[in-house]
UniProtKB/TrEMBL annotation:
Domain RNA helicase HrpA C-terminal: start-end pairs: 45-95
InterPro entries from the UniProt entry: HrpA_C
Pfam families documented for this protein: DUF3418
Molecular function terms from GO: helicase activity
Name of the protein in its database record: ATP-dependent RNA helicase HrpA
Native organism taxonomy: Bacteria, Pseudomonadati, Pseudomonadota, Gammaproteobacteria, Enterobacterales
Organism: Cedecea neteri
Keywords associated with the record: ATP-binding, Helicase, Hydrolase, Nucleotide-binding
Length: 107
């Protein structure tokens, strides 16, 4: 951000200030675009996570933020949860019934 533009043979900006990208996101909610990629089951989180990219007029504000994907695409999250957590057993719980269920499936 600059306070003054000076045009000589080229365009120059004087009195420049640095802009923190964290300031832009809450103020420009109506202008930013969000895109999501790589939804995957995260064992440590116990949820489907994805990478979020936030842009303002094509300028990246947030390049790769890890977000919970359940509010974005619940149907895909359900499918990934069933496939990874339940079928492949990639879900950590502290309940006794889960240990009993997994031992029944091995017999």
């Amino acid at each position: 951000m600059v306070a003054e533009l000076v045009e000589t043979s080229r365009l120059w900006g004087r009195i420049a200030a640095r802009i923190d990208p964290e300031w832009i996101e809450p103020l420009a909610q109506h202008l930013i675009k969000r895109s999501y990629s790589e939804p995957h089951w995260e064992k440590a989180q116990g949820a489907v996570m994805a990478q979020e990219k936030v842009t303002l007029y094509g300028l990246p504000i947030v390049a790769a933020r890890k977000v919970n994907y359940s509010d974005i695409d619940p149907a895909l999250c359900r499918e990934l949860f069933i496939r990874h957590a339940l079928v492949e057993g990639d879900w950590q719980t502290a309940t006794r019934s889960s240990a009993t269920t997994s031992s029944c499936g091995q017999k």
